[in-house]
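Subject: Sanity check before I submit

Could someone independently write out the structure tokens for this chain? I want to compare against mine line by line before I put it in a report. The sequence has 148 residues.
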Amino acid sequence: MNIRDKAWDAIKWKMMKAHLGYTDEEMKVFRENPRNEDVLSKAPALLNKTIVLEVVESHGCNSQHKVGDKFFLDGAGNLLTKQCPAKVCVYALNAAIPLIYASNELFYAGLDPNEMRFKRSACMDVGVQCGGWGRVVLELRVKERKEA
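---
Independent answer below. Compare away.
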């Protein structure tokens, strides 16, 4: 590793320590896990991604989500609230968590998250026919930040 790379490496770890609010002891544990180095090496590329969750089915939704509504998250899975509808149903987002997790794992493994086989999930409401109120189905795709 050359001097420039060593300097960047030191800066990267200092930034993460500050960002996560870790003590020196916690940072030592964090750095000892090789998985964290691998994830951090891919973070810049992930920051250029936007996760889009699109409503592909909706009926009886109390939050009034309609087909075509989109929820936007950064590549790390943080909701981009200014780009989302004024109301976002927590139950719909809860259903999307496994999809977001899977898309990140595929990305970290060097695979295209858009090739995920099962990229739809539904809110926990079972719909009026089964004793609930409504049902919303979301589909995930990952786009380049500039395309989203």
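---
OP: Matches mine. For the report I'm noting this point. Helices lie at 3-20, 24-32, 34-46, 90-108.
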